[in-house]
Amino acid sequence: QVKELRLHNADLRFTRNRAGRSNWHGVVARTPRGVPDAPPVFSLSNGRLTIGDSVIRGLDCELAPFPSGKLVAVRGKVDDPFWGAYSVSGNMDLGAETLRISLEARDLTVNERWLRAFPPAGGAVWDRYRPAGLFDLDGNISLSWGAPLDGDYNLIFTAKDASCRYLAFPVTGATARIFVDPRSVIVNHLEGKIFDGGVAGYTIANLDP
Fold first, then answer.
1. 173's torsion region: left (phi>0), alpha (psi -120 to 50) or beta?
2. Which residue spans within 81-115 are E strands per DSSP?
3. How far apart are CA 168 and CA 113, in angstroms?
4. How far apart are CA 174 and CA 189, in angstroms?
5. 22 pLDDT band (50/70/90 cuts)?
6. Where are the beta strands (DSSP E) in the chain?
7. How confident is the model at residue 111 (pLDDT cuts 50, 70, 90)?
């Protein structure tokens, strides 16, 4: 029996039709009857993941199905030349058609081009605050490909040495924690330098339409 399948340069694509239905809808792994062993582990190296218009490269991960074949453990890392390096872990529920992932990145370089390509928060928010520099990132992302939903996410950016704008003034040497979810962007514990002095504060941007 096959214990492991290794895929090199694999290209995984998630797309939706006009009705919002995913191309992965209805795909469920099943363990053949009479096979007592666990399904094989899938190992991806230097893979690529396409979700809508966003492409993530440098995917090295392991997909380990549970014996039922419907729940898959996901763990690995991403080292994308544009998005940066992350460690990821979580699970896919093929029965419920959902994906839940925790991610972690350290010393992530954020700039204007990165932010404009970043899907969750709108460009108007980044235009207002213009964060850039060195950040840590921790977060959780949930996606559903069985229904026309955009999913959910909770992200925490920790500014370590960054610049931004606060009350329309440029701030340098900034540290802060930025909480991002589908409803809001919250900048908390902001401290930095502004002109010849210092600044400390917080701000909230509502993303609800």
1. left
2. 84-93, 98-110
3. 20
4. 10
5. low
6. 4-8, 11-14, 41-51, 54-65, 71-80, 84-93, 98-110, 132-144, 152-166, 169-181, 184-194, 197-206
7. confident
The 3-state secondary structure of 15-30, one letter per residue? CECCCCCECCCCCCCC
Total-model pTM: 0.80
Which three-class secondary structure state does DSSP give residue 82? coil
Return the structure tokens found at 148: 């026309």
- Percent helix, strand, coil in the chain (nearest 5)? 5, 60, 30
Q: Which residues pair with 69 in a beta bridge?
A: none
Q: What is the DSSP letter of 65?
A: E
Q: Where are the alpha helices (DSSP H) in the chain?
A: 112-117, 123-129
Total number of residues shown for the chain: 209
- One-letter identity of residue 162: A
Record the tokens describing residue 161, joined without a space: 């040495």
Structure tokens at 168: 């329309």
Nearest CA to 172 out of 180, 160, 182, 164 is that of 164
Spatial contact of 162 and 110, defined as CB atoms under 8 Å apart: yes
